[in-house]
Structure formats: C-alpha cells, structure tokens
Amino acid sequence: MMWKTHTPHPFVHEVKLTAARRIRGMILGVVLFPVRITLATLFFLLMWPVARLRLAGLSAAERAEPVRGWRWWLFHHIMLFLSRAVFFSVGFLWIRVKGRQAGLKEAPVLVVAPHSGFLDMLVLYATGLPIVVSRAENCRLPVIGALLEFNQSLIVSRKDPQSRKKCVSQICERVTSDARWPQMLMFPEGTTTNGRALIKFKPGAFLAGVPVQPVLLHYPGEPDTVRWTWKGQTWLGALWHTTSQIHTSVTVEFLPVYTPSPDEKQSPELYAENVQKLMAEALCVPATDYVMEGRSPDKKLGNLSLPLEPPAQETLRLLREHGLTSAHVEAVMNHVIDSCHSGQSSMVTADHLAALLGLKDRKMAVKICSLYSKDDTVDLRQICLSVSAVSGFRSLESLIHICWQWYDADQDGLLSADDLSGLMGALVGVPQYSITEMYTALTARGRPTEASLQDLLMTHPVYRRVCTEYLHSSGSADRNHNGIPNRKANGINNGYGATETKSD
C-alpha cells in the first residue's frame, strides 16, 4: 500500500503523434514550415522600425510617461496589424475570443494562465497590446528589445534585489494611476507548464490590491503542439509541430473581474492563491503549490522547497540500473551512518562515493553527486538519510533521532534555526535555506526538542505532508516504483495518519 498524489506533473510535455499524424506532419512541414517561418520573420522584422519610430525624438523624461496622441493611435494600430500577421503566418488562422475584456478602470491588471510557451504572446494582440513585465536580458535581443521599448514594458533583473524592488514599485504605481497608464498583462505562474495543472501564482500581479481580470488560454486542438516546458518538447519542436499543422486552434477566455477582499488586499499571497483556485476551477485542472525555482521545479510545503523529482528517488533508480540490490544499498547506508557517528568526515569525492557503493563506473558516482551538489563532492549524510527515508530502510523516528545527533550542533538537546535547516536538508536531500516558518511552528509547541520535531512532523497540517506525501510517495510496503524492495517502508508511515490507497 502506498500514499500517492494524483496531481499531474506540470513541467513535462511530449507531443504524442500516431504514425499517420507523423507522416502527415513531415509532408506538410516540408512545405509549410519554411513558408510560414519566412512570412512570420518578415512581419516580425517590420515591427522593428515601427517600434523605434514610436519613441523617436523623445527625451528620457518623456519616455517615462505613457505615450499619447498621434504616436499612440498611429503606431499602435500598425503594431496590432503586424502582431496579428505574425501569428496568422504560423498557423493561428482564427483567434476565438470568449467573454468580454474589462475596461482599464474596471481591471488595471490582466492575469493570464496557463502559460504554455512563447506562442502565448498572441494574447497580447487579443488584449490590445497591454504593458508587460520582462527580464532585463530580453532587452539585448534584436527586435525583442525594440518591442519592449515600444510597449513601455517594465524591466527587471532577477539577479538584482534593487531592480526587483524598483519593478514592484513601478507596477504598483502604474496600476494605481487612475487609468493614466494602459492595462498591464502578467503570466502569474512565471514559467511555462503543460497546462494540466496551475502552479503557484507569484504575487507580483496582486501586490497593489487592485481588481484583476483572469484570462484563460485554451489550445483545444490535437495534437497539443504549442507547449514548451522544462522537460520534453523543445521550443524548436513546438515551432516545427505547430507550423506543420494546417491551423492551430486557440481560445482567449475572459472571466469576470475579480475584486479583492480587505484580507486579500492585505495579503498578496492570499489574493494570488484565491485567483489561482478560481482559474483552476474554470480550467478543470488542479491548483498546485508547485513552483520553478532556479533550474528545477519544486513543491512548496510551508517554506520548504521540495523538488518534484527527489534526488533520493533518482539515486535509487541509478543504483538499480547499475545492478545493486536493495540489501547492498541498505548495508552501505547503514555503514555510512555508522561512519558518521564515529566522527569521520561526511564530505566525500565522487571517487570515494564510487568505492563506497561498489560502482565500477565513476560517471555514475559523478551523476549521483550532481543530484545533491554543484560539484564532484557530496555530503554523505544527505545521501544516506534521504535514501533511507525514501526507500523505507529505517523508520522516520529512527531517522529523526540520527539527524538530531548529527545536527544538534552544541549538543544541548535543542535545535537552532540553522540546525533545523541542516536537518531537514539532509532528510529530504535538498538544502533548505528558508526555514523560518517551520522553525516558528516548531517553537510554538514549546522547546525545540527531538520530541517536538517528531510531533510537528506527525501532526502539523503542512509539515506532516513531508512524510505522507513527499518521502513516502516514492516507496511502498513491498516495492518502490524503481523496483527496489522495501522491507520496512511501513515504518515511515506508522502513526502519521496518512490516508492509504492502492497503487494504480
């Protein structure tokens, strides 16, 4: 028996084609792809001088104000025409619009989801070219930089905290300007998904506490070719498959304006969460707490960041592929635990790890190291604790006790916030830097002792999910999904009140 979440993985998309569709796509693609890309490129390049002319001759101060008069109506309508021409060229022969777009005073912000790929930019045409927020790196791209300037977009450098603060301030200023600035459009997911679930909305669109209009993007056609995600189809594949269709269907659906409550105005996170749930319900997909941080997708539990593909799970798969038995892996994990107890250094190189695991292929050890760190060294405590937790080699109570002995830095029987950060990072196999919320929940139960931590993980509505969903989801009482037997997997669930269902 195992706990299993049925939420689809939103960051992977493959185009599934029958043999007939594949042959048809190749034949059409040979003809349509070069013609359509040539036309789209031509219209795209024509946008460049139009974009430059709109602000030509204006001072920096004038460019910081919204464009008015003839510069607006002349160049705006030309850009609308060229935008439509670009997407017509690549196969969007019709753009179906459902519902009514709210006026600027009704909803200063449009929030669009799901975000599927670069072809979603067609929504800018359907909504009248509202202002967008873009990364600073895009300003250096040919044509794109000019279009962002034309749009009077807000530019943010994700690596610069001051730039982010300035962008937040500008967003709030523009959307509360009493219709002086045009509507703003944002993709609150912040990255692209396969559309089978909505990931956690970022709060940027909701910071000012003004009404927003949710906008849904539907691609009802088959095959689903437009999506470009973390894994699976590439952007070039999306372009090839889309232009190789006779036409691609899309519907832009405007939902009623969402006016925030007083509580939502005070909490952008709550506002974002409620709009996400509303849009997910309209799309008939789950609203999830998945996020994309850095280069990998995560699941948020409180302030914990848990990758959707746990490193311990991947480690077990790699070891299984290399022919290691469950008994051998368990023996190695126990040996590592004993060696760490004896005071030996827990940091090892890939060569040491290969020898420890009995791997003949050093590349396999390097790959395992890369799951846990950015170089060829790794903290054995992270490997052995996370692998033991996911595989069920030891009960959770036993693992917490081991963690406590290793991470109670001053050996006073109490955890500091830094101690808890290291402990949880080792248990789930991923460093945890934002532990404040969890530590507050721990200290709210009294002194931060081992018993308090076990109680937190056993009963807290958020952190118990680390055990019932995250750690336990990778294994079962008899065999985990990688095929490695779990003789003690029930131990990780004993007393934790998880709902158990049969594995599909």
UniProtKB/TrEMBL annotation:
<feature type="transmembrane region" description="Helical">
    <location>
        <begin position="26"/>
        <end position="50"/>
    </location>
</feature>
<keyword id="KW-1133">Transmembrane helix</keyword>
<dbReference type="GO" id="GO:0008654">
    <property type="term" value="P:phospholipid biosynthetic process"/>
</dbReference>
<feature type="transmembrane region" description="Helical">
    <location>
        <begin position="70"/>
        <end position="95"/>
    </location>
</feature>
<keyword id="KW-0808">Transferase</keyword>
<comment type="pathway">
    <text>Phospholipid metabolism.</text>
</comment>
<dbReference type="GO" id="GO:0036151">
    <property type="term" value="P:phosphatidylcholine acyl-chain remodeling"/>
</dbReference>
<dbReference type="GO" id="GO:0042171">
    <property type="term" value="F:lysophosphatidic acid acyltransferase activity"/>
</dbReference>
<comment type="pathway">
    <text>Lipid metabolism.</text>
</comment>
<protein>
    <submittedName>
        <fullName>Lysophospholipid acyltransferase LPCAT4</fullName>
    </submittedName>
</protein>
<dbReference type="InterPro" id="IPR002123">
    <property type="entry name" value="Plipid/glycerol_acylTrfase"/>
</dbReference>
<keyword id="KW-0594">Phospholipid biosynthesis</keyword>
<dbReference type="GO" id="GO:0005783">
    <property type="term" value="C:endoplasmic reticulum"/>
</dbReference>
<keyword id="KW-1208">Phospholipid metabolism</keyword>
<keyword id="KW-0444">Lipid biosynthesis</keyword>
<feature type="domain" description="Phospholipid/glycerol acyltransferase">
    <location>
        <begin position="109"/>
        <end position="220"/>
    </location>
</feature>
<keyword id="KW-0012">Acyltransferase</keyword>
<feature type="transmembrane region" description="Helical">
    <location>
        <begin position="107"/>
        <end position="133"/>
    </location>
</feature>
<dbReference type="Pfam" id="PF01553">
    <property type="entry name" value="Acyltransferase"/>
</dbReference>
<dbReference type="InterPro" id="IPR018247">
    <property type="entry name" value="EF_Hand_1_Ca_BS"/>
</dbReference>
<keyword id="KW-0812">Transmembrane</keyword>
<keyword id="KW-0472">Membrane</keyword>
<feature type="region of interest" description="Disordered">
    <location>
        <begin position="478"/>
        <end position="504"/>
    </location>
</feature>
<dbReference type="GO" id="GO:0047184">
    <property type="term" value="F:1-acylglycerophosphocholine O-acyltransferase activity"/>
</dbReference>
<dbReference type="InterPro" id="IPR045252">
    <property type="entry name" value="LPCAT1-like"/>
</dbReference>
<dbReference type="GO" id="GO:0016020">
    <property type="term" value="C:membrane"/>
</dbReference>
<comment type="similarity">
    <text>Belongs to the 1-acyl-sn-glycerol-3-phosphate acyltransferase family.</text>
</comment>
<keyword id="KW-0443">Lipid metabolism</keyword>
